[in-house]
Fold this sequence. Notes:
Distance between the termini of chain B: 64 Å
Helix content of chain A: 10-25%
Radius of gyration of chain A: 24 Å
Strand content of chain B: 35-45%
Radius of gyration of chain B: 24 Å
Strand content of chain A: 35-45%
Structural class of chain A: alpha+beta
Largest interface: A-B, 100 and 89 residues
Shape of chain A: globular
Order of helices and strands of chain A: HEEEHHHEEEHEHHEEEHEHEEEEHEEEE
Largest sheet of chain A: 6 strands, antiparallel
Oligomer: heterodimer
Number of helices of chain B: 9
Distance between the termini of chain A: 46 Å
Number of helices of chain A: 10
Amino acid sequence: MLTKEKTxxxxxxxxxxxxxxxxxxxxSGGHSALTRFANxxxxxxxxxxxxVVSVRTVFGGRTARATTNRFDDESLRRTVKASESIAKVxxxxxxxxxxxxxxxxxxAAQPGRAFFETSSLTPEQRxxxxxxxxxxxxxxxxxxxxxxxxxxxxxxxLNSRGLFAFHNQTSSEISVTMLAPNSSGWQKANSPxxxxxxxxxxxxxxxxxxxxSAEPRELAPGKYSVILEPAAVLDLVGFMFWDFGGMAILDxxxxxxxxxxxxxFGDNITIHDDVAHPMQSGAPFDGEGVRRQRVQLVxxxxxxxxxxxxxxxxxxxxxEYADKVGDIAAxxxxxxxxxxxxxxxxxxxxxxxxxxxGNNIEQMISGTERGVLVTRLxxxxxxxxxxxxxxxxxxxxxxxxxxxxxxxxxxxxxFNQSLPHMLCNVQEMSAPVRASGEESxxxxxxxxxxxxxxxxxxxxF
Amino acid sequence: xxxxxxxDWVLNITNQHGASYADVRVVDEQxxxxxxxxxxxxxxxxxxSRGIGxxxxxxxxxxxxxxxxxxxxxxxxxxxxxxxxxRASGRVKQExxxxxxxxxxxxxxxxxxxxxxxxxxxxxxxELLLAADKELRSVKGVTLAESNMNFRxxxxxxxxxxxxxxxxxxxxxxxxxxxxxxxxTEIQKRSYPNSFGGQYxxxxxxxxxxxxxxxxxRRIGEEAVALHKADQCxxxxxxxxxxxxxxxxQIHESVGxxxxxxxxxxxxxxxxxxxxxxxxxxRNLRYxxxxxxxxxxxxxxxxxxxxxxxxxxxxxxxxxxxxxxxGQFTGYLSSRETAHAIGANRSGGTMRAEGWNRIPLIRMxxxxxxxxxxxLTFEQLVADTDRGVYMQTNRxxxxxxxxxxxxxxxxxxxxxxxxxxxxxxKNPSYSGITTEFWNSMDAIxxxxxxxxxxxxxxxxxxxxxxxxxxxxxxPARFTxxxxxxxYKGT
Lengths: 461, 490
C-alpha cells in the first residue's frame, strides 16, 4: 500500500518538472479483490493493484489536469508537461481561485476506517464466505448469485501552497441474490471492517424473501401504501443530492431552483451531510483537499443549505441568487478541478423519526391494512428534472400486505414517482442504518412507509 | 523485457503453478477529455494508463489478477496471485469451466483512422466546442450550454497459452452538446447529435468534421426554449415513429442486453439481472414483425461502430451473428465458456474488457437493426402515417431486470397528423413489453436513413465495467404503443 511518505516523495518529484505558478498532485488507488458467484459457483474472481497520480497546473488563471498510472520519472515528467500544455492554450478563468492552503485541511481527527482484517482478506477467506452462502442456498433448494469484495485504498491531495491531506481506508461488501424458479430475494451490506459482515445471516434473509415471494401474483398498478426497505430508499433519494450543490443552482439545472428555504418535504424529513458520522465512510477532505464540514441540508422538510466548493461559494456570493440560497461558504464538497459539476454532498445521513426510535419494518407491516413491501429497486432514471419524477422497477422481493401481514409475492411494478411528493408522504420511519444499493452511493437512511406511491405498470414476473 | 518476453514469462509462471489455460493482456491507453460550459472551458484533461491483466484457469475455475507494475517481479507476483485466486474459486464450483476450441492467431490490426485525434491541436478542439457553445447561448432562454469532446487510443497486446499473439489498436472519437432552458417550473433540454455525450465512433477526428456541430447548434437551442410553450404529449395508445438514435437505444436495452448469454445463464443475476430469452426460445420465438432483422456485427464491413474490432479479448475473430431474422429469434452473444450452452462449437467472439484491470465479459458488439429493403425516407414514412407521435433523442430509459417491461422518455416530440409533422410536444414517453413492441413495427426507413450510433457508457459486471457499443438504425414506425404513462398519476 502506498504510504503517506511515498506520496510526499512523488509530490517532490513532480515539483522538479513543473514551471507552473501553482500545482496540485492527487494520488489515489490501492488494491481490491472481488469474488463473484452465480449458479452456486464462483465464476469470476479478480484482484487488482493500481495507483494513479494526477497533476493539475495553473498558469495565470488557466488550469488543466493530466493523469498517469506510471510513476517513473519520465512518465511523471510527461504528465506534468501534458497538464501544462493544455493549461497554457486556454483563456484565463476569472473564477479560478488560488489553491487552498495547508489550513484548509485542519479539523478534528476523523474516525479510523482502515482495518487489517479487511486489507488482509485472502481469496481463500472470501471463497469460504461464498461457500457458506451457497450452503444456505442448497439448504433451501435455491440458486444463489452475488459478490464478496474487499479493498484497501489511499487518497492524497498535495499542493504547492503546502496542503497535504491523506486518507487510508478499507472496505468490504457482500451482496446476495437467492433465486427460486419464479421468485428471488436479495440482501446487501458493506463495512470498512469485514468482521461486521454476516454472510450466512444475509443469505438466510435473501432466501426467506425468495421463498415467501414464490408464485407471485399480479396486482393492479395504482397508488399504494408502500414500505421501502433502506436500500430502496437510498436508491431513490440518491437522485436528488446532485442538485444540492451551489453550482447546480448557478447553472439552473437543480430541482431546488427557487426552492431553497421553502418546505418541499414533510416535517419529518431532516437530512445532514456528515462524513464523520460513525456509519459513514470516505475521505474527510474534498477534491481540493478542503476539510468536509457537517452541513444541514434539510430541516423538518425545509431545504436549508447547499454545499459548496471554494470557487462556487465565491461565485454564488456575487450572483443574483445570493440572497435566496441560505448561508454561502465553502463546505469541503468540491470535486477535483477543473470540472463542470462543482460539488455534491456524498455522505448523506437522514435523521431518525421525530421523538423516538421509530418502527421497524415488521411493525410497519403489522400496521398496514393494504400495501406493498419493496426490498429493492432497479434501473431508476429521472423522467422530469424539476418535478424530480423518477421511474424504475421493483426487484427481488416485492410483497402484498393485507391486514397487517405479508400475504404473497407480487409481480414487479414500474413506478413513476415524484421524489418531493414521496418525501411529503412519509408516514413512518425506522431508525436509520448504513445501507447500500446499486443505483446510488451508500447512505445512512431509514426504512420508510410512504402513502400513495405511484405504480404505473406491472411486468410479467 | 519486451512485451512478448513479459507475456512468455507470465505464461511460464502460470503454467508452473498448474494453470491449464492462461491469457495475458497488456494495455496501453491514452484518453483526452474536454468540456465547455457557458462559454468557458470546463474540464480539460489527458490521462494515460498501462498495465497487465492475467486470466487463468486452474482447478477448473477462473482466477484473474491485474497490476500496473510491469517489472519482472510485478508480473510474476500477479501471475502467482491469479493462480491462487483460481484455486480458491475451485472450492465453490458445480463443474469445471469448458472452453470452446479456438485456433491460435498471430495478427495485428488498427482502426482505420484518417486523422489521429491526438494529432489535432487542443486549441482547435476547444475552438470548435466554444463555437457551438456560443451558438447555443445566442438563443434567448438557453440557461445552460454544455459541450464535450473525447478521444481514446486503446492499444492491446493479447497472448494466450494456446499460442495467440494479437496486437490491436483502436481509436474512438466522440463529441456533442446540450442546451438547457429553465423557466417557470420546467427544465427542458435538447442535445445534439445525441443525448449523453453525443455521437461516438471508432474513427479519427474526421468524425468531428462530419457532425456539423456548429451548424446545428442554434436550432437545438431554439428547440430547448420552444419546448416550454409546447403542449404536453398526450397519454393514450398511438402510432409512434422513433428517430434512429432513440431506436438505437431501444435496440440496446430490449435486444442487446437480453441476448447476452451470460445473463441468460444466470451469471449476472445479482446485479444486471437475467433475461426473458431462455435457451428454449432460440429459433422458437417470434421476437418481432417480419420487418425486424437484427444482427450482432463486429466486423469492419458493418462500419466504424464502438463494437467494431478484429479480435475480441479471448482472441476470437470478429463475426456477424444474425440475432433476429425476419422476426424470428435466431442468435445470442456468446463466449468460449458459454458457447456449449447453445450447442455452438465456437464462441461468437463478443468478450471485451474495459481495460487491463478488468476481465473480459460478453458485451454487445454492434447490435443493429437492418434498414428496410424498399426505399423509404423519413418524409415518406411520415407522409404514410395518418395520426401518431414522432419522438426524438432519448431523455430517460428504464427496463426491468429480465428485459420485458420498458419505459423511455425523449427530449422532444411532434404530433403527426394527416401525414405531416404538426405541433411540437414536450415530455414525450412510451412504454411496453419487449416482444409486443417489436412485433408492432410496421415500417422502417431504408439504408440512406440509417446511422450507426455509439453508446459509450454501457455498464455491466462487478466490478463495474463501462463499454462502448454500436447500434445502427433507421427511423421506424410502431403501432398501438402506450404513450405518456411516465406522467400518469404524477
